[in-house]
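Lines hold sequence, tokenised fold; shown next:
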Amino acid sequence: MLENFFCAPKTLRRLRSGLSGPYIDGFADELTRAGYSAATAVRYLRAAAHLGCFVQRAGTSLGAIDARTVEAFARHFPRCRCLHSNGGATGYHAYFGAKLFHRHLSRLDVCHHDDGVDDGFDEPALVVAFRDWLRLHRGASKPTVRLYARDAVELVKELGDDVTAWTVRAVRDFVTGRAAQCGGPTTQKRITSLRSFLRFLTFSGASDLDLAAAVPAFASWRLARLPRCLSDDEVARLIATTDGAASGQVRDRAILLLLARLGLRAGDVAQLRLGDIDWRGGTLLVTGKGRYQVRLPLPQDVGDALLRYLDDRLKVGGSDRVFLRSIAPAGAFKSGDGVSSVVKHALQRAGIKSPAKGAHLLRHTAATQMLRHGVPLEQIGLVLRHRSIDMTAYYAKVDIALLRGIAQPWPEVHS
């Protein structure tokens, strides 16, 4: 109800008038359930009323609102002459509030929701089929599908819809041209996604050529440097940053312990569900890349941290994810980026300077700690869910004592 945020009768009448009026109270209830603060909700409710006024001045209805309408609404603030827009938020808050109100209306079937949620919207048929292939046959996650499809769309727009006319030179020129415009990590991801798309074209029969072989490799010598990891003292300092009874600290402690003890990926933690925890057996079911599943033992300190967090966890209807965002809108992490953000902020609080800032730093740390405690590489590979022992062997380089034992003496130079 609007009365939870406004008390002046004049303001309540103004907000409930106009095109947005019949839906404004329901929007207020939705903002409350999502956990938005009162100050933020007030801005978004005013933006919703402002959007209704904007649409009315344009001579259309709420049912005609789409992503382009919201974009136009954001651009009109400098010359705003909307009736009853007094007190309406401007800039970022108004734009984001309008987007949320648009989604609220779409859930009520008042208008169509088309701001990018619908995967495959206005994409070439080949890319739509590629999306389905990634999901069904490769077990790719939504973020991976979105990234790969985006690069595939760029390639199709550049080379045309007729795949049979594509040549090795054209594909190679496209990759090298894009590589000159961005950094190494982005280029590596694009190479991987384009090779996957070109293999799909061969698999589906759309192309007789193996164009994936035309994509040049990116020069990267992963084994040329030591794994990035933390020392035992740094891990202890990192965990200590979550000492306290605040809900955010309790959640972050459970996340950091899962990463540091079991070497989980950020996406593994974000996708973890309540049913994946076997309290009687003391195990955790982890679903990783390609829907590959494995049960891992649940250490005592990790289990204690999880229990403490679950006792304090927000009750969000319809979500069985273990970890929820601490910032509105309340709900599960959309991807592993939120988990990596937890690690990044903990590193800052602990005053630890590291070349790596995300969750993968703790995955490397867990592997190196297991190795230093004498765990065989095969068992480390099982915990990390590596499909090749060569991946796990990367961590063997951190055992300096072992390397000293097998290192050959440097030959002396005689003049």
Notes: Residues 232-402 form a domain with the hpI Integrase; Chain A fold (CATH 1.10.443.10). The longest strand covers residues 283-287.
